[in-house]
Amino acid sequence: MGICMDLNTQPPALWTLEDGPYEIAQHCLEKKANVLLLLNAWLDSKEEREEPKDWRTLNFWAARLRPLWARTEELEDEDSDSDKEEGLEHSASQQNHPGQETIVIVCNRSGVENGQTFAGTSAVFSMRRGSGRPRLLHSMDRKSEGVEIWTV
Can you give the pTM of this predicted structure? Predict the structure, then answer.
């Protein structure tokens, strides 16, 4: 279990896609966790507001958990061309890949408070070590409020 700030690096570290650091993802791998639950209050990216989901935020969460889904050679080879193709892939077009799977459940706040708009877009991901892409199994919309039950 973690909170939104667990996706960020601990100062004085600076985060990069290639080098991380990926503290919470590494912790999940070390503990062989098959579920990661994140309780977030992430703000809306304010991009593509006409889209029901905040795709920038979804991609950011997936990028910060890269060791849970990246190919081993991608993590070892910082100059890999495949890094340029990163992004979410929906489960319908994803093939099964071997490797440890971690189900990531992100419960993110929605709505507006004190002039701040939250991203909503709570989601469930399947992140399988070595697959090369995270799988988005389901997500709520930016403005959705409530509880949903998802079968994984």
Answer: 0.80
pLDDT in tens, 109-127: 999 999 999 999 999 999 9
CA angle, residues 91, 101, 96, in degrees to nearest 5: 45
Query: Kind of pairing, strands 101-108 and 89-90?
Result: unpaired
Whole-angstrom distance, CA of residue 126 vs CA of residue 47: 25
Contact between 24 and 2 under an 8 Å Cβ cutoff? The reply is yes
Per domain, the residue ranges of the chain are 2-139
Q: Distance (Å, rounded) from C-alpha 91 to C-alpha 126?
A: 8
**76, containing H or E segment:** helix 72-76
